[in-house]
Specification:
Layout lengths: L3 E3 L4 E5 L2 E4 H23 L6 H25 L1 H6 L14 H19 L3 H25 L14 E3 L6 E2 L2 H22 L1 H4 L4 H17 L17 H22 L4
Parallel strand pairs: 1-4
Antiparallel strand pairs: 2-3, 4-5
Amino acid sequence: MEYFVWSVDPIAFSVGSVRVFWYGILFATAILSGLQYMKWVYKKEGKDEEELESMFLYIVIGIVVGARLGHCFFYDPSYYLANPWKIIAVWEGGLASHGGGAGVILALWLYVRKYKVNFLWLLDRVAIPTALFGFFVRMGNFMNSEILGKPTEVPWAIIFSRVDNLPRHPAQLYEGFSYLIIFLVLTYIYKTKKSLVDRKGFLFGLFLVLIFTVRFLVEFVKVKQAAYTHEIALSTGQDLSIPFLVFGFGLIVWSLRKKVS
């Protein structure tokens, strides 16, 4: 069987000694898309759009710091504890979505303390473009030929020739397009289901359940990323997804039982 061969150079273009990577372009696109989406939300709800610039500075810092620390201490703690100066070497790669998610939540908590915005109201709305952010990031992983799937013989398998000649599950595409669908579903609910949107915490809880269900399931066909092993069958990514899933389910139930204010 002939499989699709993926051999794209992760460098989009170079200007002198400066190299611009596809991952960086897609990461920046994710941030800008999220900003534009939130501008639409704020305009729709009559909020001050000028507040978004400060909020997105908090979010970007939360994503980068959280995702980097998550990668270092969730996936290869022994290496980074032995080489702490490598923690800041973001240019060498290594960002963990679970850490990025926790970083954003913490950053928004700090933001609302300063700007007096309802925390759950904001989380409900930021969650929607965050799903779109996940799509762009996984496309960046695909361009980098990283976050690989396990070898397989399914007809849609892809050979990442920059890595090896084995046909593999395109795990990045599984996740990326699932996140895009989740973004569309959440947007539909936000635009058409006011009774659910008014229940603070519902959209954020649904986001957590959908995103981390996808992550949990895709991990079964993904090469394990952690540098260490443990006796249980679940991967580190699955272990980290469970608390988010439980919290998401709990938030949905709480929001549906709570009286709308």
